[in-house]
Amino acid sequence: MSDRAFEPLVDPAPALNDEQLARAQRQLALPGFGPVAQRRLAAARVLVIGAGGLGSASIPYLVGAGVGTVGIVDDDVVELSNLHRQITHTTANIGLPKTASLAAAARALDPGVRIIEHNLRLTSQNAMEIFSGYDLVIDGSDNFPTRYLSNDAAQLTGIPLVWGSILQHHGQVSVAWHEHGPGYRDLFPAPPAPGTVADCATGGVLPGLCGTIGSLLATEALKLITGIGSPLVGRVLVYDALGASTRTVEYSRDPAATPVTGLIDYELFCAGKLPQPEQLAPEELVSALHSENPPFLLDVRNLDESEELNLRGSHHLPLPQLEAAIDAGIELSELPEHVVVYCARGPRALRAAQLLGERGITARYVPGGAPAVAELAPDLTESALPSQSGKS
Description:
By secondary structure, the protein is an alpha/beta fold.
């Protein structure tokens, strides 16, 4: 399987203009590449999920290589804490949507490339429609629900998925293309139990790791588009930055795997078997906060996130501290019987609400998190966390 080659994914575009040829001189000189491969890149449509560490590293290489259309999916904004590793974003762009920031950088690199901004969160409701407009998808997301969603949507639409993940000093890259080999679910049939795998916010990430894995993602995409080399279909490349080492692990389809026949609720799929709390839509929370009896708000984000954007009246308890307190058997006497939990998007709030539910506290979580509420009601937000005695 390691030496397997594939037919080019994309038919070539018409003849290139002089500027395109001049930009691609160093690629055209590659053995086995040539003008036809470059025309395939010009005709290709690549969707990148995530405009963070991996997306901001892979998109410049896609654009520089001459990929004709690049779509970017992300619903986040640029924050100061991003910049140590998401180096395509800039200090001047703090507060801007990441899609807009990355699109501007891509257009500055090559104004002739078509950049499509999808400033939204990928969901089961919009994934199929979005994927249908592209030849290939790169998943550089940072959470398990999106990874499983991307795999399933790519499989159902019949297009290859190049995926990567990073944490601390390690990274992984592979290609899931169900028509020709195994997918993400064959390697990871079930998501890890909530709270057992740290994310970059809690576990950290070495900055250069984003560049290494992001460039590998772009390279796999170029190989698939042009038909050169042996893509990582049925193989996962594992990179250890501290050891400066790589290894490749082969894997195959799981004959006992449940067939993917449609998209599901991936937040619940990745939430495990803990109690499933109710959602409180952002617009419902806005109405409740404007009422005479506003709910008890619990913010489970990290402190730096809360300081940048906070909902007025919130009580702050980061998810890792909540998990540690529950593991230690500490009573949560400061919390009332009914709370509303929020984070930056929803997954951490869902996890916190589940844990609180096990302790007899009725907790609802807000999908979309603080940014969704802030967009509806800026008057309910503030830029710094108020002093709160007795809060962790």
